[in-house]
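Writing this down once: the sequence line spells out the residues, with the fold written below as integer tokens. This is how one looks:
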Amino acid sequence: MRALPVAFAALASLAALASRAEAAPCCMSATAFGTGRLLIWEDAAVGLRTSLARGLGQWDGDGQWRPYDGYDELEWRSELWGMAALSRRASLFARAPFVATRRHAGALDGFDGGLADVSAGLRYEILSIGEVLELPAIAVTVSVTAPTGRPTWDAATPLGVDVTGRGAWALGAGLSLEHTAMPWFVRVDVGATVPLPAERPDLGVDQRFGPELVTDVAGGVELTEGLVTSLVARLTWASEIVLDGASVDGSGRLDVGLGAALSWRFAYHWTLQLAVDTGLFVDGLGDNQPGRLTGTLGLRYGVF
């Protein structure tokens, strides 16, 4: 008979540990925005993110902001993604985006879309959150992007609304640093993407997009258990395009923006994600880049 109270005590202890784990700092940023990472008890996660972006203007090659006049652009993007653990530290991830675009200019009006460039990669945690209290969590990623979308030179519509990809393979690598002090977290992500040369059949030469550097700095707070709000500052810089071995002057790119996100883990397996993102529509904070205001809705399911 004494075994019964012992069993109940063991179950109670396990429940308490699980409860503390779910509220622990390791969990706050995992689903706060974007694809994120796996929670410590998850074997896998899948999700769907849908965004709607309104084009407001364009930065030219000199960094001057030009609001649209007589032109309208709206882009809808949906992304299926998944992550699966290989071990306690390593996980695989993949993303399959779909893009649809509507553009209106003068008497021209077009709407089209399709599969964009898919990507896959590996994430490895060198240090997990809380593993060494004095140090931030450290993770590295490597990825590859395949040219599964339709590139600009293959466009079949006057306004290019059927363009969904860049037409080139690309290799990527990233570093993530994260520090948490309940109920706050700060996370810095730095990444580089190197597109590989691709043939331009319309010109009969090779083209290579310039390497890209991406930096995101995010901070957030858990308002209540399972509800996290975050702010994100981002910067993307890309060097000039190389066409037939020569750099194309003025083809570099700069994109700076701010965002806010809210995530709600409303059930053990389910998390709802909301986010807004905007460029900073002033001279000098963009280069060869459209300026957009974007809203995103996401749903995440954790497998455990």
In short: The mean pLDDT is 89. The domain at 3-303 is CATH 2.40.128.130 (Lipocalin). Residues 210 and 239 are 5 Å apart (CA to CA). The chain has one domain: 3-303.
